[in-house]
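2024-03-11 09:14:02 DEBUG pipeline.ingest accepted 1 chain
2024-03-11 09:14:02 DEBUG pipeline.ingest length=336
2024-03-11 09:14:03 DEBUG pipeline.predict start
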Amino acid sequence: MRRHRSRRRNKQRNIIIISACTILLFMTVGYAAMSTNLEINAKGNVIKQDTLGEDLIESAGVVSSGDGLYKDAYEDNVYTYRGSNPNNYVTFNNELWRIISVNTADNTMKILKEEPLENRAFDTSSNGRYDGQYCNDSGGCNIYGSTSTLYDINLSPITTLAREVGKTAYNLPIKEASLNTYLNETYYNSLNDIAKEMIVVGIYKVGILEYNSPDMTTDINRVNSVKWKGKVALIDITEYVRASTYSSCENIHSLWPQNTPCGNQNYMFSNFAWWTISPYSHLYSNRIWYIDNKGIFYGSYETDYDYGVRPVVTLSGEVKITSGDGTQNNSYQLSL
């Protein structure tokens, strides 16, 4: 009797063990299948997030002809968009902007607002920068910054500047250009909070560029000789020239004052006149390079004229691209 009971208990125990193992097996297989399905679905829904700089270069690709992103021929670590309409549209501050260039040294990106702000003077006589020194003309002053924001090529602070290469240096103004103040105060404060977080203090080339520079290397060395540090700026004139793939658009001297526009094969071209950040001296401290509505650049008009304003900002290398392909209808979307 006892033997039968023992056998019955053993049989029940075995049934319980087998059932438990079977249930455990089904649960393991089911979980594995569910995990695999979740992983597949998740991978299918993930949007690739490129960091700026090197990763954007990898996804956009580098070209040697036509519209696209080029390795810059003049500056190390810089890649520049060129051509009539490259895929360099980006949404920033809920607006369309264009990517000017990316710098792999710090993975930052420089962008240009597509549509201009209302016309404004670069600097006005009422700004009070006329001091009998560098700003010796009462119609405004062509240097974007002041003694507190201007630096030499090695980023050492400067307080004096010559209006021409090799000429006498004069004391710089102690106030920023009126357009500088507007862009870095009123305009900057109008940006949404996310846009503000993406912007870093950039280093912008604001050196004086004579119209008789012999080649692009000289042009770039001259604009690079003086730098301004801040959040909102404008393009320098060499960036406009480099954006064109037009064979005759080689440097400043080759086109000015001819009627061959660098607006040819240049995505920056617009049918309105707008300011650059580059001073035009040739003995004058109140004249600056601007681009007219035919894409030709001039330096013969004074800073208190009203022209279009296209802000330029530098975005942090920590910003990510979450979607888009850079076309106008599918611009790059950004996040932090």
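2024-03-11 09:14:41 DEBUG pipeline.report The chain has two domains: 1-46, 113-315.
2024-03-11 09:14:41 DEBUG pipeline.predict end
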